[in-house]
Amino acid sequence: QITLKESGPTLVKPTQTLTLTCAFSGFSLSTSGVAVGWIRQPPGKALEWLALIYWDDTKHYSPSLKTRLTITKDTSKNQVVLTMTNMDPVDTATYYCAHRRADSDFWYFDYWGQGTLVTVSS
Amino acid sequence: EIVLTQSPDFQSVTPKEKVTITCRASQSIGSYLHWYQQKPDQSPKLLIKSASQSFSGVPSRFSGSGSGTDFTLTINGLEAEDAATYYCHQSHSFPLTFGGGTKVEIK
């Protein structure tokens, strides 16, 4: 059974750096064909993909946020960490991590964490 | 960037009715299109993968079709528990993108 859970601060100040941790179980990020991604959702708005890391440490970032994002993995701890620098009130959102798998040539997010709401305010 | 445009934005439907949601991609994405259901205060759940394949455990009333640029999610016989926002998502190329969502309300 695959589960993921996000953790981190619920409130950050503008210009601060946000660090979120995704703790997962039921799979290994050292297994071929596996990835973990981060997606966020501002209140009442649509989903926005942020970053992705593969089992082989290949990383992808949203071009609009690339300069502010860093995604890393700790395979021994079954964790993925996302850092976002220079936080702004517009970054207020629920942040999700999700398991991504390959099915033949098709990759998709099949399991999501419960999400964590991050508010950016002074 | 591939833009996904969903329609309608909102739909109010009577139980047992058929619901059709469309997702149009700004360029051809083959079958690299997936559908998610998000109920209020919950995380998204995968319904349909690769345009038309049902994910494990998803009720058979949910189905998907399409390829290239035009895709459809159909709910045959809406049930009260289907009240949610539905999103399409493309994995054809980076950056990964999602549609704007379609909110389905039960009349």
Oligomer kind: heterodimer
Main pleated sheet of chain B:
7 strands, mixed
Structural class of chain A: mainly beta
- Briefly note the structural class of the backbone of chain B: mainly beta
Secondary-structure element series of chain A = EEEEEEEEEEE
Radius of gyration of chain A from the CA trace? 14 Å
- Rounded to the nearest angstrom, the distance between the terminal CA atoms of chain B is 36 Å
Q: How would you characterize the largest beta sheet of chain A?
A: 7 strands, mixed
Helix percentage range of chain B: under 10%
Total strand segments of chain B = 11
- Number of alpha- plus pi-helical segments of chain B: 0
What is the global morphology of chain B?
A: globular
Overall average residue pLDDT of chain A: 96
Q: Determine the mean pLDDT of chain B.
A: 97
SS elements, strand count of chain A: 11
Radius of gyration of chain B: 13 Å
Helix content of chain A: under 10%
Shape of chain A: globular
Description:
The complex is a heterodimer of chains A (122) and B (107). By secondary structure, chain A is mainly β. Chain A has strands spanning 3-7, 11-12, 18-25, 34-41, 48-54, 59-61, 69-74, 79-84, 93-103, 106-112, 116-120. In chain A, strands 2, 4, 5, 6, 9, 10 and 11 form a seven-stranded mixed beta sheet that branches. A four-stranded antiparallel beta sheet of chain A has the order 1-3-8-7, with no helix packed on it. Chain B has 107 residues and is mainly beta. Chain B has strands spanning 4-7, 10-13, 18-25, 33-38, 45-49, 53-54, 62-67, 70-76, 84-90, 97-98, 102-106. The mean pLDDT of chain B is 97. Chains A and B meet through β5 and β10 of A and β5 and β10 of B.
